Amino acid sequence: xxxxxxxxxxxxxxxxxxxxxxxxxxxxxxxxxxxxxxxxxxxxxxxxxxxxxxxxxxxxxxxxxxxxxxxxxxxxxxxxxxxxxxxxxxxxxxxxxxxxxxxxxxxxxxxxxxxxxxxx
Length: 120
Prior knowledge:
By secondary structure, the chain is of the alpha+beta class. The protein is built from 3 helices and 6 strands; from the N terminus they run E-H-E-E-H-E-E-H-E. The protein has a single domain (about 5-120), classed as TATA-Binding Protein, CATH 3.30.310. A hairpin with a 2-residue loop joins strand 2 (about 35) and strand 3. It is globular, with a radius of gyration of 15 Å. Residues about 65-70 have low confidence and may be disordered.
């Protein structure tokens, strides 16, 4: 399940370079790789994307599609899409940890730049 977190700029709008610097400072070495693939930053995290209930029981593991990504979708990746009026912090197959880190990025940008935050 994909999740978008829109940070809509008001008065202050960071440059692409400022966005990159803030992302790198936010991760502070946690991300295994951060790349600019226009028009977005791709942030790869260590580990495997899966439910925190993965080892408990098959029933619990399969009951929540949002956090059980299944075979082939186990990379932990956060995208930060850069547009003129906003950024969109995206998780496409996020597990609990990845989703919370992405929420934190969006909240941090909104707080730091006095922006409006829309999370779904």
